[in-house]
């Protein structure tokens, strides 16, 4: 019978497989990972979503740069119908 390979950590110490099945940072009501909070864009209609996207584009320079690159790439594609 083949033996399972041994898992080791960065110091070459053996890791028990049962430890990998334990939950380490579950969501809690008062914690950062609250199970109650939803995604900020939940429940937005299309107009409100576009307003949110525009606000993000104005405030986040990295997002603006990535989006601008995509817009320029798409604008160079020849339109065919």
What can you see in these coordinates?
The protein has 81 residues and is an all-alpha fold. 36% of the residues lie in helices and 0% in strands. The protein contains 2 helices and no strands. The protein has helices at residues 46-59, 61-75. The longest helix is centred in the C-terminal third of the chain and has 15 residues, at 61-75. It is extended, with a radius of gyration of 24 Å. The model has no long low-confidence stretch (mean pLDDT 85).
The whole-angstrom Rg is 24 Å
Distance between the termini: 63 Å
Overall strand count? 0
Q: Given the structure, what is the number of helices?
A: 2
The helix/strand order is HH
**Overall morphology:** extended
Determine the structural class based on helices, strands and strand pairing. Answer: mainly alpha
Task: Give the oligomeric state of the chains in this entry, treating copies of one chain as homo and distinct chains as hetero.
Answer: single chain
- The percentage of residues in β strands lies in under 5%
Major beta sheet, specifics?
none
Low-confidence blocks of residues: none
Helix content: 25-40%
- The averaged pLDDT comes out at 85
